[in-house]
Known about the structure:
Blueprint: H1 3-34, E1 36-40, E2 43-44, H2 50-64, H3 70-80, E3 88-91, H4 92-100, H5 107-114, H6 116-120, E4 128-133, H7 137-147, E5 156-163, H8 170-179, E6 191-194, E7 199-202, E8 205-211, E9 228-232, H9 240-243, E10 252-257, E11 266-267, E12 283-285, H10 289-305, E13 307-317, E14 343-345, H11 349-356, E15 364-371, E16 377-385, H12 391-404, E17 411-414, E18 431-434, E19 439-441, E20 444-451, H13 455-468, E21 475-476
Parallel strand pairs: 1-3, 3-21, 4-5, 4-9, 5-8, 9-10, 10-12, 11-12, 13-15, 17-18
Antiparallel strand pairs: 1-2, 6-7, 7-8, 13-16, 14-15, 16-20, 18-20, 19-20
Helix pairs in contact: 1-2, 1-3, 3-4, 7-13, 10-11, 10-13
Amino acid sequence: MNQSYEQALQSSWQERQEYAERMLPVIGQLYRNQAVEVTVYGRNLIGASAIDVIKAHRRVRLFEGNKLRLRESWPLLEALSKLSLSSCEVDIGRLGVEFAQTESDDVDAFLSERLADAIASNATPKPRDVVLYGFGRIGRLLARLLIERQGKANNLRLRAIVVRGGKEGDLEKRASLLRRDSVHGPFTGSITVDNERSALKANGSFIQVIYANNPTEIDYTEYGIEDAIVVDNTGAWRDRDGLSQHLQAKGAAKVLLTAPGKGDIKNIVHGVNHLDISPEDTVVSAASCTTNAITPALKAIDEAYGIANGHVETVHAFTNDQNLIDNYHKADRRGRAAPLNMVITETGAAKAVSKAYPKLEGKLTGNAIRVPTPNVSMAILNLTLDKETTKEEINDYLQKTSLFSDLQHQIDFTASTEIVSTDLVGARAAGVIDSQATIVSGNRATLYLWYDNEFGYSCQVMRVVRDMAGITVPILP
């Protein structure tokens, strides 16, 4: 390698890094001030690093065959920051590719046309109070997601968490678990404890910690909390009668369960049946992590090819429900040491799909294997289709679905031949299609779908919270 080539390579990289560093404060200000989220082909750049921005731009070539240079998208972002926009999600990757294909150099006119809906709208949703009832794995991840979006344009405010206990040192323990996570890494920001007011302070958020053994004994209005959405992360109640106890608490208006609901409770998988939520619904379920992972992909496949029948096998990370070492457990096999064994167990996810997508009622069976990994799971979808296809055709369809459909937040796509489970920690999509593992023979298709059963699911829960709050975020262009 000669010196001139080395210098050119270094200069090219430095240029990209400089543009990325220039973009970061603009991306942050757009979100904090206008609730505008900037993405690049589905990759959300809120809280991203300069390297994340560069990698997101490189991703464009995988789908378009051509690069999107940061110096090409920077003028679009800069012009975007000067517009008065309502809350929306703007993909500057797609805008950059589209603008490059025009013969115009008028960025302002181009954006005015493509973002007309957001420019014309003056909608400013009223901020909604959110309470986390339970502060386990999902509760703490929901807290992170709520806190990362703090700003004057934020429409969801984490006001309180409710836990049992209250022993000396409890607040410090809660703060420590939020601050450090063995799987998801350190909290981005600052967390302090306010013992005098029994609260946590995180990145400018004041979060009341309420100690209670029963929802009915709480008066949220004492803490200035009104019309709150209570997210129940305990799983202690799964039916309407049990969950309706939350509604007896003053200041609580709606309840969202982060587990499959029983009886007549709507089980919502955002992207599939979230439009079923009505303003009158006071108790809703966000279904399970596996149901959220598989239902969007199954819906997409059924709409394109038809599903006659199928079997879903889940290879699932172990959960807190299992034992660390062999001990009594009411369920078969789950009493055996989780870090040492693969454990065959049942899952209701396959049957639960029909609650969100009724067209597959009675068409799916399912089972699960718990494995000795702490997070990230895989669903193997063995499907008999109504028509024949090929691996290339079905992968191409799923890739386009992940980018350009209403399921783009639910379905992600990878073409990597080296990806493994730890690479998917922190994935925000409900599920990620592993295209290299796809098998097709005639009308038989086997799809492998990764999902972060903690963080990816929590992102889906947050989308349902926004639905319940009546907050809609259009995706542009």
